[in-house]
Amino acid sequence: MPLDLDFMIRIFPELFRALILTVQISFLALLFGIVLGILLGSLRVIGPRYIQIPIQWLVNYIRGTPQLVQFLIVYFALPRIGIVLNEYWTGVVALTVIAAGYEVEIVRAAIESIDKGQKEAALAVGMSEVKALRLVLLPQAMRRMIPALTNELSNVIKASALLSVIAVNELTKVGNKIIYETFYFFEVLIEVAVLYLIVIGVLGWISSYFENKVFAYGEAITATEVR
User: Fold this and answer.
1) The CATH number of the domain where 112 resides is what?
2) How many structural domains does the chain have?
3) Measured between alpha carbons, how far is 30 from 10 in angstroms, rounded to an integer?
């Protein structure tokens, strides 16, 4: 049975709005995750051991447990500690937790990829370890970690499909709603998949651009180095 192209055209605006929401939440989560990743990743490198160990435990928890479980924990835990957010911001927080768990290792790998002589030289001229990190190591590390962060945004967008379980009207949830209302399974699923592929494809192109052009004269940290 051929696909109903007219139906797919009619539902495109609704799916596209859901896609925009998905990208918005994912991008915010990536930004907040970067802030946490830089803070915690830096502490993983220069912090005392009693700080490094809990951070490593947190990273192991995030990377070693199902994302659905993490979403549900955030969804039910926030109200228990007095933080009441709507579905949108709950989704941002949940995705931020997931993103931060990987970005900590991206930051750590990028910092540790810098030649140790640069840190030693900074310390030799009187800089503190924190100042050397802020002025010497992090600027170079940021340049190297951009491709991996671009790849992480793709992973966050794919993980956002799980936000449907906490009632966020992202792309997958809206697609399911249309299926329940119309029973056009294949048309909806194919269109949802194509929209995801387009976004991920664009992000993949951006990542390749940075690796091939921006980093032509320097080594970048790739996602495979931190996973």
Assistant:
1) 1.10.3720.10
2) 1
3) 32
